Amino acid sequence: MLILRSLRLGKLRALMTKRHHPKVRAKAKSVKMTPDPWVSIPRNLRCFESRIQSVFTNELAPLITKSIAIILNREMDPSSAPGSYEQLYEACNIMVSLKQESEDLYKAVEKSLKLCAGRILDDLYRRNETGMAWLALFMKGWEWYENRLNLMHSIFLHLDRGYVHYHRDKGKLPVRDLGRLLWRDSLQKPISFHSHISAGIVEWVTQERDQLLGGGTSTMDMDMDQTGARAVIQSLVAHLSLSMLYPFFFEDIYVNNTRQYFAAERSKKQVTLSPSDYVLHCATRLEQEELRLSQCCPEFSWGTVTRAVEDTLIRNDTQTLAAPAIAKFMSGKDVPSLSKMYRLYSRVQSLSGLRDAFKSYVREAVVAIVTDTARDASMITSLIDLKSFVDQTVVDAFQGRNVGTTRVDQDKDTQFEYAAKDAFESGFAQRKNKPAEMMAKYLDLEMRQGQRGASDQEFQEKVNAALGLYGFTTDHDVFRIFYMRALAKRLLLQRSASDDIEKSFLVKLSKGFDPEFEKGLKMFADLESSREFAEKFHRTCPEHSNFTTMVLQPSAWPTYSPVTIRLPPFMQTSIDNFTSFYCSERKDRKLLWAHSLGTVTLITRFPSGEKELSLSLHQAVVMLLFEDNVNKLKFSDILEETGIEKNELKRTLQSLALGKKRVLVKKPPGKDVNANDEFLFNLKFEDEKRNIRINTIQVQETAEEHQATSKYIAIDRTMHLDSAVVRIMKGKKKLTYQDLINAVIEAVGKRFHPVVADIKKRIDDLVEKEYLRRDEADTNLFHYVA
Q1: CA 419 to chain CA centroid, nearest Å
Q2: What residue stretches are annotated with the Cullin family profile domain (predicted)?
Q3: Residue 668, preceding bond cis, omega within 30 degrees?
Q4: 593-615, pLDDT tens digit by residue?
Q5: DSSP label of 412
Q6: Residue 111 contacts by C-beta under 8 Å, 6 or more apart in sequence?
Q7: CA–CA separation, 524 vs 607, rounded Å?
Q8: From CA 256, how far away is CA 237, in angstroms rounded?
Q9: Phi and psi dihedrals of 634, rounded to 5?
Q10: For 57, phi and psi rounded to 5 degrees?
Q11: Strand order in 772-774's β-sheet?
Q12: Coil, helix or strand at residue 702
């Protein structure tokens, strides 16, 4: 029977091609095509319709119907269909040429696909499996159905290109799209399908999340699908996306489960984890979810799921977690964790809270350093280390740029840089004057020590690190005064490591910070002229060739309080002769001797050998008392012989008898010098070096010098406030009280930040001195008095 049908189909094909093909082709070329192909068929072919109608009704229709039934039956082999795929393809081609039969063929295909989809889903509906097991069966059913749809698409290609193409406006779909639509309609009817699919998705994602939570699989290993569940889910997502069922059958289920799962996890983890560990936990969880989404879900749903994780785990807790987590990471210098925290807070739009916590931590750290009076000596070193770490954190963790740079990258988050700057400024303000003073002393120590084997670049970086703190203090005048005093002492005591470095640093300070630093260059000019004058004095008085002086101009150097000391006769003679020589050369000048800055190189003979001791003038005067075989002196005797102030003498004796190089012996032993102590020349003193420098308390700043400097700063500020008030009123002639205060703050702001109470006090004082007067009608208005 199959052979007979094949022969008849072949006969039909021959009948159409042999008897009518030439005329049909020729006629077709002359006929204009219209949207309906049936109208375009030549009249003689349409007349032939009645002759082939019986062939279609009796042979082709049953052939196609039975073949479709076999192809769409899961229990039968499609190769057992009565017609081959080629025969079915040709039969479809013939039937599409017939207007009535095309529609009947489309309806037959639609009915068969609907029955097939229903049978598959009905079978799944009756299965006892649940969860992923049922989901695996569901995907096998769909994959088989999709495979048959592809086969049907190939067989009925002419139906898609002919009948369907010209009837799209009537809702006709290609065979493959029609089959998917019928599957989708059948899938949405019973509610149990949704629950089965939901159970499978929940089982899969819960199992993966639990496994990662327990540490069984790292984030990087999530692409390894050892159970095969991931492959089923990926196929399911592809199927649901193709069927336009993804939002209802997958995304909604996934998002709802995500909220429930992480809500429960949040409740547990916030109890068992510290704030910092919880922040890292949230960051890790989000990374895991993003990786899972990238491997299993379409891109358009990533944002919905990740927002669900963010909302549930972290978004409402960012403010409470920020401060303790920042404190933990910053104190541990954990930059990678800070970077994770930044990315986490960025994605939940909570960077303002993170910045506030960061700023608060840095401020507290700065305040702790600058207010720790017991560690003033290490204040600047600690601040430099803190600033270096903060700068690096801003760059590496918070995507910013270094504090103090001028270039702004619009792609970077510069708010953290500004937060760090504000934190340092606020921290410095908690202790007036001292940070600026300690900066000057830190630089003084660096200039004394010099490069010490470091390259020029390394030394400049070290110095620049200290200068980087300059912008955070408002006490610029304090820094300048202390630095200039320290510079003067370095130069006079010859403690500076390099004059070239000193000069270049002064130029840098004057250009970049305060023009008044240019006065330091005048110090070097004085030293040069002093050396020239000393050479002239030595030529005139060769007997004083071992006596050298430095003549300083008061305008370029700090003022030094005179000290009382009784010098040995040979020293006093040299001083008197130099004074006479200088006055004869410079009759309009007067010399005031600053003995506190004098130095002496003293050749001393010990039983172990001869040594050259580099001493201060006070130390040398004390040591010279032990000449002529004087081995022991009381403190009172030394005080009477030298005339040195009592406290100063105690410091001097401490440096000689209690320091590292003990050229004197104190009896009885002890850390302090008392009025009843006795001092002996140390006959047992030994040292490998011939030239020995004995450090003195004078090299460091004494309490009296510090007090004098502080007093000078207060007086200098008073003078600047007075001059600012007078200068402003002279230009404006009259101003209200508040306007005058604001103008004064702006005028002196580059030197120091004045206290309003001090400004008011200076205004009242100038009113008393009749530089200003109050308006008689308005006491809040001031007039300048010429």
Answers
A1: 11
A2: 434-657
A3: yes
A4: 888 778 888 888 888 888 888 88
A5: S
A6: none
A7: 41
A8: 17
A9: -85, 160
A10: -65, -40
A11: 734-736, 781-784, 772-774
A12: coil
